[in-house]
Write a structure and sequence with these properties.
The chain has 768 residues and is mainly beta. It is 12% helix and 34% strand. The strands form 12 sheets. An 8-stranded mixed beta sheet has the order 36-37-40-38-42-43-44-45, with helices on both faces. A 4-stranded antiparallel beta sheet has the order 6-7-8-9, with no helix packed on it. Strands 10-11-12-13 form a 4-stranded antiparallel beta sheet, with no helix packed on it. The longest helix has 20 residues. It is globular, with a radius of gyration of 27 Å.
Amino acid sequence: MQVPSLPGIDVVAQPELRLGGLRIHPRTHSSSAFSFVDDLWLQAVDGGAERRIAGLPQPLALAAMQWSPDQRHIAFSHVDTRAGRVELWLVDVAAGRARRLTEQALGTVVGEGFDWLPGGSGLLATLRPQEQGAAPASDGVPRGPSIQETDGGGRVQSLRTYQDLLRNPQDTEVFAHYMTTQLARVGLDGRVTPIAAPGMHVGAAVSPDGRHLLRQRIERPFSYLVPYSRFPRRIDVIDLDGRLLHTVATLPLVEGLPTGNDAVAPGVRRIAWRADAPATLVWAEAQDGGDPARAAAVRDRVFAHAAPFKGKPQVLADLSMRYAGVHWGSGDLALLTESWWKSRQLREWRLAPDAGSAPVLLREGSREDRYADPGEPVTHADARGFQRLLTTADGEGIYRIGEGASPEGDRPFLDRQQLGVRAGTERLFQSEAPGYEVPIAVLDAAGARILTTRESPTSPPNVHLRALGNGAAPVALTDIAHPTPELRDVSKEQIRYTRADGVEMTANLYLPPGYQADRDGPLPMLAWAYPREFKSADAAGQVTGSPYRFNRISYWGPLAYLAQGYAVLDGPTMPIVGEGDAEPNDSYIAQLVASAQAAVDEVVKRGVADRDRIAIGGHSYGAFMTANLLAHSDLFRAGIARSGAYNRSLTPFGFQAEERSYWQATATYQAMSPFDHADRIDEPVLIIHGEQDNNSGTFPMQSERLFSAIKGLGGQARLVMLPNESHGYRARESILHMLAETNDWLETYVRNAPPRSAGSEVEAAASP
């Protein structure tokens, strides 16, 4: 598949509705998106020439794609903005030809709009109702005020901040119109058979036996406080003729949760079909009321209920943490994972769901410990199209693909793990320097043939076929060229250094092509980072990334400025550690400044950066970091802050990894808010934000208020508000303008910055 270059601002500026936490393209009845796959072709795994596909719509705008279970067809959705519809298309793989499958348009406000029926006999589609008519129009006259009221119950709940919410009765009617879809079966001949009546569907999945349909619909009353995912929901099982067979649950509106990232809503969660059984539903329900502060030996109970759904559901597992999902294999093999965010702990269990035997613990540890990560179990689509564990011939072994984190960097691997009497793990493949190779598919149950992507600092990722165990060289299946050959000779080094408190840190140091430190001396530098929280200093100090990955020069990160002669420090780790009962954010400022100090000292010691000409930048939480470093240190000459949040009183019920509310940790919220310390931001800061940011917490007002504060206090700042842009910028004009603004800022305040005045070295970290 090929994705085109960035769309123009004329495309991004198309009408867009912002309702119920969604962004909707009203003309096409789809989720609002502006970049699609514009070419599709076939490549045999065993090699040979590329096969072009005849009959594709032109220009192609492919939004979603799925192989049929029998691999004879590919279904895809095509967004035709001129006709105002999302179409369902089918590719005959053997013939290499595409055709539109049905005239009736898809409704894809939520979901992809189609899924294969078991075996590939047809598709389950989510269609626009044929007799629906136009969306409710507003005459501009309000029907009345927007009213909300608490219940006065005195319960303390966490109410996170969300964007794009419903605001008034008119919004609710328009939202209901675009959410209403018609479920239908679509045959390979294009015949459409409706299933039940239209409804506000947010989920539909056919059982492996092809006879039952798990249907989820949202219901009224809607809310002005939370997105649609928290609206009342009805979960049913119907047959493919639309007859109601079983009501699983009717879930109420959830406008708040208990405090903590381990808090969940009471009732049915994460419901899905068991992949290795004809028609068995599996889900979790909290046994502690969803409140992590409540003492409970059993936090989550996992249930299974088989068709015809008579009697009580079977208890599959009782968990002391939160249910995190199951990989299904067969009746005597499944892998269940539970985790607890607060402690970062997880456990993986082997289940024998049909035997009823006790679970067997396979793994227990910290999800932060990348060095000990055994990898993700490998799955494959069975004959009915459901993902199941790829097992060895005796059914006692599985395969795992992992990142292979180590002190030398990531070295992806493929392992075969025996789970039975002969328990043990055999490494079948691991990436070797000086390249970086990732297993992406295991092609047979013996693990003898795999697909990988191979790359190096100067070669972009390409797909290879590798036969294991015979010493044969891998066979290249694709030949993607270097996208920026002018920067092929960029120098990259993964560097290690130590923070003052002993925490080990990592960064990628990039230098322009042809640069020699002994000849060219220190350069102006742009450092680009994103802080992360840890419960363990050992985990925080683990190496991330690899020195052998491709040097992809993207418009989004900092590497484009290598072409302008800057050194770049990309991704210097900024760990915020809170071990034991300590909260990481209570020492956020001190740890942040210490991390930045260690990074600056290291690049200056290496002679590649001029201490007086280093800028700091970041996006989102990285922008928050940037403003804090400018306020609490004098390490940097300027900052680039994109789409950040700067006043934490505007996100009072938690942010990022902070679980406590503003009223529980007022001092921490205030200490971490650069808005509260705007009088100390005495370096120039470029603030960029999308005018229509949809990210929770990063309201455009955050940047506007920080700019106003700096301006009123006599500081140096520039505010750039990009029209029609969200949290990630999409239009070519926006991206080019962002790059130009950043370049001008760096040229003015970093490259050509005068020497610092005497005595203005490094400011001490702010007091707690």
